[in-house]
Amino acid sequence: MREIRDKLFELTNFYQEQLSLYGQIQEVGSEEQELIRAGQLDRLLAILKDKEGLLTKAGEYEQRIKGVQDQLAAHFDLETFSLPQLKLVAPEYYQKELQELEVAVSELLPVLESLEEQERRNEEALSKYLEAVQGPKTKTAQIRRAGRAYGKKSR
Length: 155
Hints:
By secondary structure, the protein is an all-alpha fold. It has one domain (2-126). The protein has helices spanning 2-38, 41-75, 83-89, 95-149. Helix 1 runs antiparallel to helix 2 and helix 1 (2-38) packs parallel to helix 4.
């Protein structure tokens, strides 16, 4: 009984640690937006390296989470880990720990959705920036390619 409580507590802590890391990643993402707007690509690359380190740590927590989830699923004879299913099959004396776990997961989901949206916006902003910077060169190259395609000599 104590071992299962410890596993539920451990899983909740892993989610909370992940939440903290994703909060840090969100802060870095905000910095990315500012650096893209300012055209500071060297600084942006340094920030992206920091972000990569945070994402690696979050991935390590994901591995740990998966391990504990598998142990809990096996203990409660579930085919796969599912918090709603776990709440149905776990005895009443685990409900407090399950409630805490559910809170941790519910706090994590909106942050993940927000990060996904932030990442999309950052990619879009970077793409627009690069397009604007490379626009004149790209247009000239496209005109040359189009001319060659129609048999004209490029200058």
